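Q: Entry one of two.
A:
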Amino acid sequence: MDTLDTIFNHRSIRSYKTDAISKPILDNILEAAIRTSTTGNMQVYSIIVTQDEEKKKALHKIHFGQGMVLEAPLLLTFNADFNRFNKWCNQRNAVPGYDNFLSFFTAAIDALIAAQNATLAAEAQGLGVCYLGTTTYQAEKLIDIFNLPEGVVPVTTLVIGYAKDIPALVDRLPADAVVHYEEYKNYSADDIDRIYKDREALEETKKLLEENKLETLAQIFTQNRYPKAMNVDFSKLFLDVIKKQGFMNQ
């Protein structure tokens, strides 16, 4: 498939066939992830491949019981990982200084870029993909189930398989909502109205407002999907995980 076609036709697939993924296809996905851009060619990330049914059952519980975790034949968990790099430094008479926030952030970026490369490779080979945001919410449990050592923190998970149902393309904001030329141009009230006008006018939006008994789409995000209390609670939990795994010490 053409690269741009792959990108422009991306959908989050949440319903999968149980058909197995062949080893050559899996190897292509993993190699695409490995060939991704990385800070200083350090490759401070790791990928855990899950295909075992019993392991998937355990992950199903951790990922809030999402059915696609059981349906799909493959899960890839991407981790920010300085463990391997630190060991290499220590074995080569070099003192690593990567127990800080910047190092975690660097490794998380590496892991997420690798995940997106894996996504493109999977979709280019006819597979469907969905990111699991529950990875950071449940990071501590994932650390236990995967036996992750210090210096390793899970940051995202890909569910991968052959789509059972293919949803319509989800709307996106217009380019001028996210693209700024030469310098950042802040948004006026009129800009905000124009940028969100089409999304707010969707029939899907009207249905959501009726179901949730709310006035605006923004309220669905702030009150139902990502309320402040939840964000604060999970922020504290994830920060504790990052500290326990050896980051944020400096």
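Q: Entry two of two.
A:
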Amino acid sequence: MYENVKETLFGFNDKETGIKLSAFYKKHTGREVDFNAIKHDKDGFKLLLFSIPLGRISTLDINEANGYPAKKFSGPVQEFLDWYEKEYLVFKDYEIIKHIPHASLEFPPSYQEEGGVSKSLVFGKNYKINNFKMTDLFVDQLFQWVPGIEVKAKYTRLYCDVEKYRDDRLEPMSKYGQGYVYTISFDGEKMRRHFQWNGVDPDGEIDEYYDKHHASLTAEVRKILEKKKKVLILDLHSYSDEQAIHIEKKPPFPDICIGLNEGFKNKKLLDAILRRIEDNGFSYQINYPYSGSIMPNRLKKSELKNVESIMLEVNKRLYL
């Protein structure tokens, strides 16, 4: 995640901060540096450039710093210290996969209003409204600032929900008709699934589509593991209060719902994400109104130990 951060830039002008920096630098590098001995500029300010990971130290003139391509810290030096210990060191061994299963409004070519199966016949007369209500609109754009590999479902969840277990006995949402193949629309209308049209079963493609998506997710995870890196899957969604109430959850609902699987233990990863949410003034709850996070279904146990998954559900009231 932080492979693109090569240097950080910050400044200070007081002795106490210099002492704190000396202790911090020794802790992480084992090297003794007296930061208070570094020469001030003409305004009594010390502008420092640190290599990341910690190593080389140099100074910059304020005029040189303006266009310098480094991660800048304009507040107290403690901001840099917290970033290095509570964010950089936490994420530096991970590469991120952004899993986006519900952001598409598209249907496959087999469902056509002309020359094929009518979408309204299969998905209900209000399918356009239901599709907009259930789709995680613009989630891919909301998280485009996060560096990582994107694994995105090609088609709408009304066609196939790749997030769900294929076995309805394992899928809690199947009781609402929202397993991996939906049988009930958002407005309660039954969907006509698994039927023949001109001798062709248009839903026969679903299993292949589902398997292809999960194979793609697994392949991307393994590419990272082969580089001896760890994997953080960010399972990215949005939701509305209406959607949460529909599955019998009670308000108030948070700005951001965080889903964790049973047995999740990486507290440092979670704390770093929670701190970013809190710093931006958003409320959150863990595993409410939704819970859990996707894990690739084709990984070996030996591979899973280096894979973490966290679901982020953004309440649509924040951006729509």
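A: Comment on entry two: Strands lie at 7-12, 46-51, 57-59, 71-72, 94-100, 149-152, 230-239, 256-259, 284-286, 307-315. Residues 151 and 217 are 6 Å apart (CA to CA).
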